[in-house]
Design the sequence.
């Protein structure tokens, strides 16, 4: 005869509600760890998926994810001239927010190096990669966009031709993939009035100099497009992603490029570490603190619940002692109930979490190692929480049953 099981049957409703409460609390602990894992995955997603060996960024900066980085497009051509470099792609990334169908649409725009990169590497769940150089985009399904949607961005309208899964930026925004030229067109788009004012300002600055007075015909060139003025440089990019040919020393190539006065170079591992120590570090520590607090709260609640259950059984425990039951029988009664409560709570946390976590606004990633660690923590909490009830039970006087 198992006394713990019989006692649970006698108070099954209360025990089940208690296990449900513990399970929901443990689900929050599990969710905190899953949110951290998802945060790390989103922060390092592009670094890992891009497959670049080296990241070339603006001199003195820590890369496009940590801060603003601007380097000229011609750096791409200079890098391709370095022996051992097989590929160099300009990296363009920026965040936009528009109004679409009566709701805010926030996207992190990524520029693909068309035609070398059409987006075949993207985890498509519907549609296809980019099929032309302009006016197409591939978006993550978390954006709420559908295949065939036409979205006005800047002065052009882009058609959604593909949908991806789990492609979110470190801030949780859905990613949208365009060709590099289109991504820069969206990034540097200006209203017509702003362009007119800028061209008028150029003409005014030209006319205020001796060159403009001697050559008034240059005013026509100054009032034209920026691309038609040689003195104005091409649009800037955030970084250049470099792939090194097999057999070449990546460290030697990185050292050679880093010697240039206008750029800094980071390896794949270094760029990933910068992300984790920069953007994710504070969030990691905050989530970790909340997780520890929830574990402590869970332990306190379980201890109080088991103590209360022990108080309800004071008369029964006194009767057992009067009948000659050993202390280990009483200890086993309370300890087994604590372990069953912890195990049932852990099971409820896992099952409910699997249903609710997909609806969270941020990705929740539950790893098997995290589940094992939490199971060990729950086991320790169950044992420690039972000690308060055990101490009370062992102090019960058998004579109390006669009073």
Sequence:
């Amino acid at each position: 005869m198992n006394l713990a099981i019989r006692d649970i049957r006698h108070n099954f409703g209360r025990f089940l509600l208690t296990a449900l409460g513990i399970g929901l609390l443990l689900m929050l602990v599990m969710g905190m760890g899953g949110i951290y894992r998802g945060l790390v995955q989103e922060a390092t997603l592009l670094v890992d998926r891009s497959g670049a060996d080296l990241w070339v960024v603006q001199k003195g900066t820590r890369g496009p994810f940590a801060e603003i980085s601007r380097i000229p497009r011609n750096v791409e051509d200079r890098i391709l001239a370095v022996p051992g470099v097989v590929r160099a792609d300009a990296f363009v990334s920026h965040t936009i927010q528009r109004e679409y169908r009566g709701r805010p649409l926030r996207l992190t725009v990524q520029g693909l190096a068309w035609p070398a990169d059409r987006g075949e590497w993207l985890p498509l769940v519907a549609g296809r990669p980019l099929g032309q150089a302009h006016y197409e985009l591939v978006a993550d399904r978390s954006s709420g966009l559908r295949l065939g949607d036409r979205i006005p961005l800047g002065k052009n309208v882009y058609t959604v031709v593909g949908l991806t899964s789990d492609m979110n930026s470190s801030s949780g925004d859905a990613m949208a993939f365009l060709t590099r030229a289109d991504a820069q067109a969206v990034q540097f788009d200006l209203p017509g009035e702003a362009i007119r004012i800028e061209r008028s300002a150029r003409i005014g600055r030209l006319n205020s100099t001796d060159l403009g007075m001697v050559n008034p015909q240059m005013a026509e060139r100054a009032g034209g497009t920026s691309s038609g003025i040689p003195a104005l440089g091409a649009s800037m990019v955030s970084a250049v992603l470099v792939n090194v040919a097999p057999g070449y020393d990546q460290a030697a190539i990185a050292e050679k490029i880093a010697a240039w006065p206008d750029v800094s170079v980071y390896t794949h591992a270094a760029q990933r570490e910068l992300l984790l120590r920069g953007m994710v570090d504070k969030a990691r520590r905050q989530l970790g603190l909340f997780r520890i607090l929830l574990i402590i709260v869970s332990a306190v609640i379980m201890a109080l619940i088991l103590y209360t259950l022990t108080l309800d059984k004071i008369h029964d425990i006194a009767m057992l002692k009067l009948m000659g039951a050993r202390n280990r029988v009483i200890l086993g009664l309370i300890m087994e109930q604590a372990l069953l409560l912890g195990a049932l709570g852990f099971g409820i946390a896992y099952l409910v979490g699997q249903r609710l976590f997909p609806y969270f606004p941020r990705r929740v990633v539950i790893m098997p190692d995290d589940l094992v660690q939490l199971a060990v923590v729950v086991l320790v909490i169950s044992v420690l929480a039972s000690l308060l009830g055990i101490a009370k039970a062992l102090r019960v006087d058998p004579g109390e049953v006669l009073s």
Remarks:
- The mean pLDDT is 81.
- The first strand starts at residue 54 and ends at 58.
- Residues 57 and 239 are 5 Å apart (CA to CA).
